[in-house]
Amino acid sequence: MPSTHAMSGTAIPFSLFLLTYGRWQYPFLFGLSLAICWSFLVCVSRVYMGMHSVLEVITGCLYSLLILAVFQSTLDQIDSFYLTSHHAPLVIVILHVGLGFLAFTLDSWSTSRGDTAQALGTGAGAALASHLNHQLGLLADPPLSSLPLALPPLSAALLARSLLRLLLGVVVLLATRAAMKAVTIPLACRVFGLPAGDVRQARQHMEVELSYRYIVYGTVSFSCVCLVPLLFSYLNLS
């Protein structure tokens, strides 16, 4: 309680809808319907799999909607600070790691604690990558006068390019995840003096689980937001 899958399954699609509507040209009802269907399917899957009760799922959805309502008006200020402030990297790391420690101290070990740390690590990596992109002048935003952007016409060339980008991006991210996972858990066990023979048992220690989730998924999301787009640019797939 609450369902972290229901929270992320509500926060992600509705955030995407709120942040892209007005930036891209598409019907309001289409975007809203897509967000609702996405959230509904994730929430129903948790009940169907027997992982959560209906009340836990509803609570997770309501938590996410409340958080979105509170922070929606401040997103531009937060985004500006993350992109432009020289103190942003330090704030990002302290904030996300601090929230992870808070989540782990609220209760005994459970998969939801790991899911929370994974979400926070992913957010930290993406925020750090966005800051670096802005500081280096990479992936610059289009001028406000050009918004909303028109969707490109559907064609065979566009589909082929999109499929190639998807396959290449997935391969890079899976390789990054596998490499970081193979290194992080044994290293964390060695640093904290814990036996590394039983990986599942080792990950029930806060030190190992936090290190694993933050380093692995922080690196994956950093690669997704910064390194993979650079690779696309180099291969003329942007």
From TrEMBL:
What Gene3D superfamilies does the annotation carry?
Answer: Phosphatidic acid phosphatase type 2/haloperoxidase
Q: Is ATP-binding set as a keyword in this record?
A: no
Name the Gene Ontology biological process terms.
sphingosine metabolic process
Phosphatidic acid phosphatase type 2/haloperoxidase domain sequence ranges: 1-71
Q: Name one GO molecular function term.
A: sphingosine-1-phosphate phosphatase activity
**Record key words, sorted:** Membrane, Transmembrane, Transmembrane helix
Q: Which residues cross the membrane?
A: 29-48, 54-75, 87-106, 214-235
Q: Name one GO cellular component term.
A: endoplasmic reticulum membrane
Question: Does the UniProt entry include the keyword Transmembrane?
Answer: yes
| Alphabetized PANTHER family for the sequence | SI:CH211-212G7.6, SPHINGOSINE-1-PHOSPHATE PHOSPHOHYDROLASE
Q: What is this protein called?
A: Sphingosine-1-phosphate phosphatase 1 isoform X2
User: What is the species listed in this Swiss-Prot or TrEMBL entry?
Assistant: Salvelinus namaycush (Lake trout)
